[in-house]
Amino acid sequence: MAEGIVDEILVGGVWRRGAGPLVESRSPVDGRVIAALHGADAADVDEAVRAGKAAAEDPAWRGLLPHQRAKFLVRIADGIAAAAEELARLQTLDTGKSINETRALVASAEGTFRYFAAALETVEESVTPSRGTYLTMSVHEPIGVVGAITPWNSPIASDAQKIAPALAAGNAVVLKPAEWTPLVSLRLGRIIHAAGLPAGLLSVLPGPGTVTGDAIVRHPGVGKVSFTGGTATGRAIGAAAAQKIMPVSLELGGKSPTIVFPDADLEQTLAGLLFGIFSSSGQSCIAGSRLFVHASVYREVVDALVDRARSLRVGPGDDPATQVAPLVAHAHRDKVAAMVDRARKEGAKVLCGGAAPEGEAYEKGAYYLPTILEGLPNDAETCQEEIFGPVLVALPFEDEDDLVAQANDSVYGLACGIWTRDYRKAARVARRIDAGTVWINTYKQFSVTTPFGGMKESGIGREKGREGIFGYMRQKSLYWELTEAPLPWAL
Ligand code: NDP
After folding, report:
1. Does residue 229 line the site of ligand 1, with CB under 6 A?
2. Atom 34, ligand 1: residue with shortest CA distance
3. Residue pLDDT, tens place only, 152-166
4. Which architecture characterizes domain 4-252+458-477 according to CATH?
5. How far does residue 90's CA lie from ligand 1's centre (Å)?
6. Is the CB of 328 within 6 Å of ligand 1?
7. Residue boundaries of the structural domains of the chain
8. Which residues in the chain come in under a pLDDT of 70?
9. What is the topology classification, in CATH, of domain 257-440?
10. Which residue's CA is minimally distant from atom 26 of ligand 1?
């Protein structure tokens, strides 16, 4: 086990060994076990939810005014800032991601807590137009205990995106990080714990999704689940939530189109396309994994892209020069490789990549080369299914209608990129594409102020933005009679 990593999880305010099975975290660089932790079992989940409920109902938390609650969020942000480099390195160790990316994720997590601390003070109750001699109001209250279930690709940013607004709204949180990457979430748990929140308000419960995650979703004391992960899991969680009539937010997968028109600035476009698919080694829900290029410039753009993709620097995450780091796990790399092999069988031409890199430095790592495919119809598996690796499939389009039909011919609707100098065309196309986020002449840029989420099978609900807090609240209407007159019916 890596030095300094202790076999303890946070259950209802207490750091202790989990009662669940051993969860191993392996280095994506060489496969060695870097941590082995006992995860949470259903009894741990029950204890965490009960403690969360008690903490959320305690006037010491529930009675705080927004500006008082905000102070805790600021303290958490300060804690993240103070441990920033350690958090980035830990996340690189666990996920394999490049250190530049994990530093950015830590900064984003810090910013998320600061933003929701500030946003919390802008949340207003409303006085609604009355239809009688009474005053009508709409108010928002905490839900109680929120379950937060996150994936392995950007743990600290996904965790913060759920914990910050949920705490801002006055809830307790039970967090379940992914089995492959529990370390940074546990470290974040220690920072939040140290910020002096009432004990029990946050639990961090690693463990297998089908055990720990499922126990959280089904627990009667959990009033909402906020989930980020794959569409199949999201569907299962949605079904379980329906049985409880429990609200859920689901941030799911994607197969996002990026579109190149003939008038696009080539340099800007190539940089954006490379970043859109190959940063995070393509392990990003918003990866621009389907490239549509206008037929008149298709060859020129795709050939230039292949040239650049071949010279991307593939290496270990802790080397600041690395652009494409190993994938999160060897098993995941093998899944990506198998999908590319199936693409070959479907008739794809592999323009670059399509294999693990060769050489001693890469032998033990979960590496896969940046890969560009072409020659497939849009209904091929490779063009329809999320690969979640450094694999781009290129397709030509003839005109705007053809483009929109192909781009929207997908069960997903998460993101889209449009590359053109013609802003009228961009505005038109952006409104016609089924996607929760559309980037125009840029890609994968994020602001915590701007709502994020998917359409279609990419999910329901929105995170971020001022309204993000309302996603963790229950709405209540209040009627205040202003006269002393009895209701006429009873007279
Ligand atoms: P999974 O859906 O397998 O896992 C996500 C989380 O859910 C993990 O913590 C997992 O636990 C847990 N889980 C698994 N099964 C259950 C269950 N039955 N009940 C409750 N929890 C469960 O996704 P991946 O790990 O494969 O993550 C990659 C996916 O996440 C991609 O499809 C990607 O598109 C999506 N994603 C979406 C984002 C968005 O905002 N739209 C952002 C980032 C990723 P464990 O791993 O321990 O089994």
Report:
1. yes
2. 253
3. 999 999 999 999 999
4. 3-Layer(aba) Sandwich (3.40)
5. 20
6. no
7. 4-252+458-477, 257-440
8. 1-4
9. Aldehyde Dehydrogenase; Chain A, domain 2 (3.40.309)
10. 230
